[in-house]
Structure formats: structure tokens, C-alpha cells
Write a structure and sequence with these properties.
Length: 220
């Protein structure tokens, strides 16, 4: 899952980014409303964390502009204000949820996960079953048969990209974009390292390399 944080308090933004990255998300950060609108409008994000009081363009306008352009990405608004009027205004512009500063990081993560689950197909179960592989995307647990397999946050995120498109080819670029972040400048072969680890933990024949195209999680 790829998240965008639009927050002008740089220490808070970087702290949130660090914590959410540790949770297994790919996170990009911008510090003003104009950049946030551009990045959210052009990028393929699963969720936007949007401060209201921003330089350049406030969060209300960013949210309203995105919605007017047809973008349905979930938006979690952050603000130092409080009061029913502010909350109503934020939600009226199209925000999906609202969190008042100061807030608990645990609460923010819970809100993020809830919004991401809500964005999925209505009625779809968070548990993906592919043969004897069972992946619970909500609880972030993986089973092969009756045995639970322990994965790191990044390993789980790579597997999640494959399991939601089981039987289809997923490119290395897609995995990099959704599991790492926009600014990642390291070795793109990092994906191969994680796929190799997943094969070791889940079974060598489960993930097939499609030369020149990417990887496919076998469905049988």
C-alpha cells in the first residue's frame, strides 16, 4: 500500500512517515498544499493523510479539488483545530475521516487501516486463499496449510502485491512503487531479494519469475 502525507510540520510528517514505513507501507511526504494536490492527482496512492492548515493551498481546497476531479482516494484529514464546524467542513469537502491534533499514533494507524479496508471491494473478505496459502490482509498473518509463517513488514507487503493479483504477472516496477516509495533510489534488485526470501519461507515453486515481465503467484 502506498500512502501520501501532506503535512507542513516537518518533524511530525517525518515521524509519521517513519512509523508507517515500519508498518509496511510505502510513504511519500510533501509539505504544502499545491505539491500535495499535484502529487495526489498524479500519483497512484491508496490513501492520503492531509493536514488542513497548509501553505499554498489549505487542506479543504486540496480535498475538494481532488474530489471535483473525480479522485476517490481515501483522505484522512489532520488539524490542530477542533469543533463540530471544522469537522463538518472537512467531511463536506469529501474527506473520509478526521483526526484532531494532538492524536495517538496508535489511533492514526487504526484509522488508516480501517480506511484501507473500507476501500476494498464491498463485501470482499480480507482473507485471500490461494491453494494452501492463506493471507489475512487485515491481521497481516500468513499460513501455509495449518502452519503460520512469520514475515517481516516488507516481506508481507511484497506478498500482498502478488496475492491480490494471484495468477497475474506483477512487474518489479509495480512492487517497487507500492512497497517502497516515490523517492526510493536504491538497487531495484531489492525486489528479487524479497521474492527469494518469500520462496524460501513459502515454498520455492509458489512464485514464478516471468522473464522480462515480473512475478506471478501460482494459483495451483
Amino acid at each position: 500500500m502506498r500512502l501520501l502525507i501532506v503535512e507542513d510540520e516537518k518533524r511530525l510528517a517525518l515521524s509519521l512517515a517513519k512509523g508507517l514505513t515500519a508498518e509496511g507501507y510505502a510513504v511519500d511526504v510533501v509539505h504544502d498544499g499545491v505539491d500535495g494536490l499535484h502529487r495526489a492527482g498524479e500519483g497512484d496512492y491508496d490513501l492520503v493523510i492531509l493536514d488542513i492548515m497548509l501553505p499554498g493551498m489549505n487542506g479543504y481546497r486540496v480535498c475538494a479539488t481532488l474530489r471535483a476531479a473525480g479522485h476517490d482516494v481515501p483522505i484522512l484529514m489532520l488539524t490542530a483545530k477542533d469543533g463540530e464546524y471544522d469537522e463538518a467542513e472537512g467531511l463536506d469537502t469529501g474527506a473520509d475521516d478526521y483526526l484532531t491534533k494532538p492524536f495517538s499514533y496508535v489511533v492514526l494507524v487504526a484509522r488508516v487501516k480501517a480506511l484501507l479496508r473500507r476501500r476494498g471491494t464491498p463485501g470482499a473478505a480480507p482473507v485471500r486463499v490461494v491453494g494452501d496459502l492463506k493471507v489475512d490482509t487485515a491481521a497481516r498473518r500468513v499460513f501455509v496449510g495449518e502452519d503460520e509463517i512469520t514475515l517481516t513488514a516488507k516481506e508481507f507487503s511484497v506478498l500482498e502485491q502478488l496475492v491480490v493479483r494471484a495468477g497475474q504477472v506483477v512487474s518489479k516496477g509495480d512492487i517497487l512503487e507500492h512497497v517502497w516509495d516515490f523517492a526510493y533510489e536504491g538497487d531495484p534488485n531489492i525486489v528479487e531479494v524479497y521474492v527469494s526470501t518469500l520462496r524460501r519461507k513459502l515454498g520455492a515453486g509458489r512464485i514464478k519469475t516471468v522473464r522480462g515481465a515480473g512475478y506471478r503467484l501460482e494459483t495451483r
